[in-house]
């Protein structure tokens, strides 16, 4: 929001494009952070599953944990495929070098 407002102010001063580039860079950074967080979450969930399987040897608990993990991973994959990738692919701006 701040970057967009900053860009609007620059357009009034005939300095175009600079704010747009910052917004695009910010969007790309946010998408990359989301992707890293998704991968980190999957790793953490996998570690939790291993710990639960090793520590708790009751079959019912293990099955419930595995089902929850599978659902979480599927949701994460769907979010990345449906939300993150199309947004990243639509960001096509030539950044100044």
Give the topology.
Layout: H1 2-12, H2 18-55, H3 59-90
Question: How would you describe this structure to a colleague?
Answer:
With 97 residues, this protein is an all-alpha fold. The protein has one domain (2-90). It has helices at residues 2-12, 18-55, 59-90. α1 packs antiparallel against α2 (18-55) and α2 (18-55) packs antiparallel against α3. The chain is elongated and about 55 Å long. The relative contact order is 0.11. The model is unreliable at 1-6 (pLDDT under 50).
Helix content: over 70%
Category by helix and strand content: mainly alpha
Report Rg. Answer: 21 Å
The beta-strand count equals 0
**N-C termini distance:** 25 Å
Approximate strand percentage? under 5%
Q: On the 0-100 scale, what is the average pLDDT?
A: 67
- Helix tally equals 3
Describe the structure concisely.
With 97 residues, this protein is mostly helical.
What keyword list fits this structure?
97 residues; mainly alpha; 3 helices; 0% strand; elongated; disordered N terminus
